[in-house]
Design a protein that fits this description.
The chain is globular. It is an alpha/beta fold. The strands form 2 sheets. A 10-stranded mixed β-sheet has the order 1-2-4-3-5-6-7-12-11-8, with helices on both faces. A two-stranded antiparallel sheet has the order 9-10. β1 and β2 form a beta hairpin. The protein contains 8 helices and 12 strands.
Amino acid sequence: MTRLKAGFIALLLGGAIGCAVSEPGGVSGSAGTGSPGSAGTTGQAGTSGNAGTTGQAGSAATAGTTGQAGTMGQAGTTGQAGTTGAAGTAGAAGTTGTAGRGGSGGSGGSTAGRGGSGGATAGTTGSGGSGGTGSTTVPSPSAGCGKSGRPSGGKVEVSGQSLHYFPTNYDGTKPFPLLIALHACGNPNTEFVSLTTGNGLDTTYVRTFPNTPDSGQCWSSYTGDVARILQQYDDIMANYCIDKNRIFATAHSSGAQMLVNILAHKTDAQHLNLKGVAPVAADPYNVAVPMPVMYIDGKMDNQRSADSAKNTVARFRTANMCADTSKPFTAVPMCNSTDGSRPAVDAGCIIYDNCTVPTIWCSHNDPSYSGTQHGVPCFAMKAMSDFFAGL
């Protein structure tokens, strides 16, 4: 009996010990790997790990924790469009960066799946549009806009004082740019009438040709001459339709000296609000305001001192904060002189580097003006027209 009880107890203890040993839990889930993704979509979350299977009579395996979601790929930034110059091509937009794909879920186990890797880098910025030619200045109508139509014959003249010409399509409502042209010593104020005809200036600009009553028709009295020029300018603005943002000036010899002298007087220069100038054969004055310039002079001009052109250009370079360096300005083509046997003329133009405004010097070899190289060369008026149109 005693043996029977001892055997029964042993049997019960063996069963209890066997039931206390649990089966192994589920294996750890492997980490989810994130691959760089294509389009900037949100990474897919890792799937939950499978729970470990329960051993016989064992305690339940701990369930695998949820895999962390892949981080959202950063979208590529859109490239900035190129600014459009007139006739310029727009810059291509930047490509969009690709986003990271979410990590795959861990299989069962206690270790969580690893999140997907981050998205690809942002898209590259689009390149800018190439610059076009032509002005983008917004017109500023003068007080005279809408007062009257085109004057009879397209011409208004006060003998010995002023002369204005109007394009055939001028109607008094659309503002036109204004071109002021100052004649050379000993020349009437009609000198530039023919020079500005047939090259686009006559069809694009209202043209005004002031006159000086000074001895020999030379601009020799600054105070009186500038007062007349400013008064005529004010009269045009008050009575005709002019774009106040597009006032230009050219001049020759004594007239060119007068024009550069006006630029040396800041108040007078600001009154005219010039957008650009193209003096021919002037002399140096201390230019008081930054001014886009195409300066033209003969390389061997015998009516000016040897350093006149160089020193005049130096004053413009100072006002326009140019570097000492320059490069050829090839936009001005060669031409044939109107003088003598009509030799080929090299415009000899350069443009200075790093200026705040365009600064061009054309040192030519046109023998015009009776072989003096002091005249208005064959390329000048077309070059001026193109230069003004580009400002």
